[in-house]
Structure formats: C-alpha cells, structure tokens
Design goal:
9 strands, two-stranded antiparallel sheet, 258 residues, 8 helices
Length: 258
C-alpha cells in the first residue's frame, strides 16, 4: 500500500481524519491527550508528552545553530485564563469567533463549545494539526475549523476576508515588529457591531506598550488583571501562581477601516 503523506495545507488538515492527524503528529512527537477542565467543562487537548526531553533533542540537533522552540505547543497560563474568560460569552446565532496564534487551540475550543462559528488559526503547520485533532477529539467539527493565518503580515498577504464578533489571542504580543500589522489586522477583522470585541491575554510582566500606544488610536481598551493558579505538582509543592492581564478592545466607531 502506498504511503499517505501527512496533511500540510489548511484544507488538507481540515479534511483529514483524527487518525490521520494523530499519525502526522506522532511522526514528529510523542503525544497524548491531556484532560483540561475549563470552569467545570472537560476538554481533551493533544500535548507533547515530554516537552523537556523534546527540547533537549532539539538542542542536540541544532548544535551551535539557532534553536526553534515549539512555543505553540505549550498551554501558557494566559491561554488557560483566556479560555476561562471565553466561557462568559453567550453568542447570538451565527456569531463568529477567531482565535489568533492559537497553538493547540484551547480558547477556540471553548468559543466553539459556547456556540460561536469558530476559526482557530496559527501560522505553524504543527499547531494547525494539533488544533484540528483537538476539534475532532472534542466533537466540535460542526462549529470549528482551522486556518493558516499570519496576523503579523501586511494587508496584501492577509488571507482572511471575514469579520468576527469575537477575536481572541493569548500571548500574541511577544514580537514588537508585529504590533503595527496586528493592530491593522484586528481593525480589518473585528466586526463593527456594538457587542463585537477583541480580547487579548498575556503575562502581567509583559507590557507591550508599543502595541497599546498604536491600538488606543483605533480602539477603546479596558484592562483587567486576573490571577491564575496552576495545578498542584506531583511532589506536593504549592501550586505556582501567575498574574495575567486581559485587554478588551472595541471599535471606536462603526465601520472603522484599517
């Protein structure tokens, strides 16, 4: 039987079965589904089984060259907190949500489970494979799909054409060069209705002043600081605590254009 190649395009990934996606993931990583509960609701999230060992392998392979770490694969505290926050929303029929830089797509899964027609997006092929596997594993294929999106690209290379009632992004402000295109991206894709908003979350230690100086010219911005407590460790140590900042952006005026 001829070998079936792994899906690489967004269309191929959206059309692949769960087994095909898991085969593609296992060709590169040791993986497992990890139970994650968000405000009482259980999800199964595909994870790299031993991230520390995998990073060590990458370091050995890289030698003295640049080391590309799989940041997309980690469930960051800001991502978990944003998923909890997304549980608050009660969408109207046919309202749409977009998760930017989704990684494994936890927040997008929550949005889809709430009833949003959801696009879970990232630039990394592996992230899209993991996100689509999570969509299928959690039975959300009728409400969510993946898309390859670079929110740091200029307008001419922006592959999205739609507007969304809710845009979500966790830890998307770590590269200063993306601040200008990201601001424009949100402006192009956030719906102009009064209840449309973009919610960004990040570690409280990350300030991203340059982004907010740009964004406040086009959006109303509200900040909320929230605490996050990690699960108790296996050795019985006290759970680690994190402070994260949530920012809610709404259009200053209906019909604003980027």
């Amino acid at each position: 039987m001829p070998e079936v190649s792994a899906p690489t395009t967004a269309q191929e990934i959206n059309e692949a079965s769960l087994n095909e996606l898991l085969d593609a993931a296992r060709a590169k990583f040791e993986v497992h589904f990890e139970p994650v509960t968000v405000d009482g609701q259980p999800f199964q999230v595909l994870q790299i089984s031993d991230m520390e060992r995998y990073v060590d392998q990458l370091a050995d392979q890289a030698g003295e060259g640049p080391l590309e770490l799989p940041f997309w694969a980690k469930l960051w505290p800001a991502s978990v907190l944003l998923a909890y926050y997304a549980k608050r929303f009660q969408p109207k029929p046919s309202q749409r949500a977009l998760e930017m830089g989704a990684g494994v797509g936890l927040t997008g899964l929550v949005a889809a489970s709430k009833g949003y027609d959801t696009v879970i997006s990232d630039i990394e092929t592996d992230a899209l494979i993991f996100s689509r596997a999570n969509i299928l594993k959690n039975g959300l294929e009728n409400k969510a799909r993946i898309a390859r999106v670079d929110f740091g690209a200029d307008k001419e290379r922006d592959t999205l054409t739609d507007r969304f009632d809710l845009i979500l992004g966790a830890e998307v402000l770590y590269i200063e060069d993306t601040y200008r295109p990201l601001t424009k991206f949100i402006g192009r894709h956030l719906a102009t209705g009064a209840d449309a908003e973009c919610v960004l979350s990040m570690s409280y230690t990350r300030k991203a002043h340059g982004f907010f100086q740009r964004a406040e010219k086009e959006f109303n911005i509200q900040q909320q600081v929230m605490g996050f407590k990690a699960n108790e460790s296996e050795d019985g140590d006290d759970p680690e605590r994190f402070l994260c900042a949530l920012y809610r952006l709404t259009q200053r005026k209906a019909g604003s254009a980027a």
